[in-house]
Write a structure and sequence with these properties.
15 strands; 31% strand; 4 helices; mainly beta
Amino acid sequence: MQRRRVSAVSNLTLFCFLALTLVMLSGAAEGQPQHHLPDLHWYPGTATWYGDPEGDGSTGGACGYGNLVDVKPLRARVGAVGPVLFMNGEGCGACYKVKCLDKSICSRRAVTVIITDECPGCPSDQTHFDLSGSAFGRMAIAGENGPLRNRGQIPVIYRRTPCKYPGRKIAFHVNEGSTPFWLSLLVEFEDAEGDIGSMHIRETGSSEWLQMNHVWGANWCIIGGPLRGPFSVKLSSSSGRSLSARDVIPSNWVSKATYTSRLNFYP
């Protein structure tokens, strides 16, 4: 199944200017379930797989995580979703349990996947997962991985589940092309809900939190200037949980660098 790939964006400035428009247009379709945590209810959906049969899935992906999808803890756990759960990128980072329903070939266990990619060719009126070959095959009983993949598309049930990154703290990647007049950040390893509802930064010596705008995938941007580091970052999950990382981005920050906080939603 073909999916749109998003590489390093050279026109992030334009994206920042369009951010407010995107925010207005990027809401989930009216009436679609939001699946906030805790969510113990299983929902119906469908699933396919892509890439190599035992492969890790995405190379990069529409959320912007880049090479992170090729290494643990994301490796082999990545998944693309259709519009219902991707929500124009607002669903990036969320985690789901996906379970096959056919007891003749599938085990009782569910696989946990992390949303890192979009499946734009997937139906817009139903929930669809396009999983790595490895994750898809893990739903099978012993010895039936290949036959399960040979079925192509299968009915599944799914539910939202907490993201868990033991030993990891939330990190902020400064996207390529960022300047003191506009700054774009990618959030990595946010556990619990995994997705982001809002994000703000605070300049050195200021008490004011400046709102960042969601631009695409898991990327957020702000225009100002000149912005003065070090920057504190405050983010909130889709359920309203929030935390603040003080002075996490230093005054001598550089584009394409990643700065790790000392915090996460789980201890």
